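Methods: holo model generation. Sequences were used as deposited, without trimming of termini or removal of tags, and paired with ligand SMILES retrieved from the corresponding compound records. Each pair was processed once, and we did not select among multiple samples. The sequence and zinc ion SMILES for this entry were:
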Amino acid sequence: MLRSFLSAVVIALLVGAGPAVAEGVALTFDDLPTMALTGDAPYAEATTKALLAGLRRHHLPATGFVIADKLEGDGGVAQTRLARQWLAAGMDLGNHTYSHVSLNKVPVQAYIAEVSRADGVLRPLVAAQGRPLRWFRHPYLETGLTFEARRTFETWLAAHGYRVAPVTMENSDWMFALPYDDAILRHDKAGAAHVQRAYLDYTERVVVWYREAGLQLLGRRPDFVFLLHATRLNADSLDQLAAILRRQDLHAMSLDRAMRDPAYKIADDYAGPDGDEWLSRWSRTLRKDLPWKSFPEPPADIAAENDRLDPSP
Ligand SMILES: [Zn+2]
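and the model returned the structure below.
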């Protein structure tokens, strides 16, 4: 009896279960300067200001992935100012291509030209503040249909000092973002509060799922890399998001630090149409299933509202 109790304790310690062991989480925000229903400059400014203030208030380091063409052309000067505010707030910036194309949809050389063009916009911006530019995130998490495309692109990335920023936690925040913007822009306070409540409730359930899925897959919980977007919804929800991380024993860390977790050395040689996050990729490599049956469904009313506002596939 005592022996089996002790071995249960030993197992719990080995897998890192129990409330005493907190794992890390690196927050990453895609589609900078902002992802919004409106191109309105004051809306983007207010979003950026609130997002950065919230991150600083809760001591949350973050990496923002910029769509570089937003910093050029009409409104480019104002958008560039927003990107600079991220650096001034101590956050890192990464490359998210020039115009948010998918490696699954364009030839690899055209994709490299896109990323290189974004590099030309972003590198002087970060260098002016003495900061590095080392992270790349694939739009749609689409990493190439063939091994050849993957290898060609990733060789180029490495030669230019970039590392791929994987994703091991995500909450479909983009699906809630436009319905929230829509409610805010219509001054519909009750509507905005409804979307925000649904978003936070869903986020907490998904975070619980990812922690459990990581444990099942690896026998311990890894340091996570959380994909979010630079939206008004996240800007207005930072206090509650920070509370969710605390409740779930996740302590914030830089992307650099999270990536030191040995889990990120697991091979990912998937080539194909799915824009999967990395737990799914590792589950292929390790030939172990993830508990998809218990994955929380996003609320149907929010999904329908998002489809109405953003009919693009
Ligand atoms: Zn994106």
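Confidence is low (pLDDT under 50) at residues 5-20.
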